[in-house]
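#random but structural
TW: two for the price of one
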Amino acid sequence: MAKTSRRSFIKKNILSGLFLTSTVPLLQADNTIKSERIVPALKPYTRDYKSIDWDNIREQFLFPKEKHYLNTGSLGPSPKVVINTVCETIEKLETSVSHGRHQIDETHEKAAKFLNVTADEIAFTRNATEGINIAARSLRLKKGDEIIITTHEHVGGASPWMALEKDFGAVVKLVDLDFNGVNNLQIIRDNITENTKVIAFSHITCTTGI
């Protein structure tokens, strides 16, 4: 029953592929959201969680202390260091009457170095949904071409492909995953045919976290 409901939801309710946009809070005149504490740098993939100052990290977020926000993979709250940087950058651009293009170019270079690619291979979008829509609409797919996605995709990850099915007849194949994760690669392989042109799925599912 659960599989049928998930398939029905994906097929019927996420064809629109709407872009999500976010808003940025403005820096107040008295600079009240300015953080006086610095978020400690976290070592990637650290297992020594006791060495992390979690209280300090929690202080960087503005939402009430009694709340616990776990949806940071979507539209999550930003820490003060991010809010301050955004607000200070906006203020600097507004007062200098600058387009800030040099900052975008510099960020392209930094991102490219981090990902070991060239700067012209980097494209900034407002969010993942917009990025997937751009990628989906840029492919030269035709009627009958198959697109494999799973029944565990986030709405933003599934709707761009569903829209292609609706607009010109591409075939979206929904694959049910194994909840223990062991057989998922083989499940996807078994669904590949000579008509398969796209395989798109999350490396971590939004439904179970596998």
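TW: number two ↓
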Amino acid sequence: MIRINLMPQSPRRGVQTETQGQGWLIAALGAALAMVVVCFVIYGMKQEELQSWKSKAAQVQTEIELSKSRVTDHDQIRAQLQKLREREEAIAKLQSARTGPTAALLEIAKILTRGRGPSVSPDRLAEIEKTNPLAKFNPEWDARRVWLTEFHEEARRVVLTGQARDGEDVSELARRMNLSSYFHDVRLLPAKRNTGDGTKADWVSFQLEAQVRY
């Protein structure tokens, strides 16, 4: 037997079902909107990170190009440095010549020039004369009474070989060298007196040894 319900249905149940459907739709739309917002936020962060990496990459590329330019000029820079070193060595050699054996020879020439004397400060000379008057050099000495035949210098040790009219001339030369700022520890080596043959006067062959300051 078939039963047919002819009683009208309650409208309340239909409205409840429709309301639930709208709620799910709104929730789905809200979730979708939130997902879109999150995606935009993440996209913005990634864009900033990408720009940062691009900036760093550009900086590294600039440094690479700069390094390349430096490497390109490396040979030229090395050549310039080599020229500078050679110039410095040449200047050093000239300076050494001023204060080396050349200066010692010039001082000897000054000592043996009439009317001149050793290179010594007036204060030091006055002090030496006060403590030892015999150390004073004779400004009237005729330096032509001494002539040198050899000048040998090695490791700042000088040996002078020469001849003089007498022993006092050799002593005056040694005295002047001792006063000079260029020499110290002047020592007279054994001398030899030579007798003339009637046409020549007697003379003395001598050697002086001293240490050089330069």
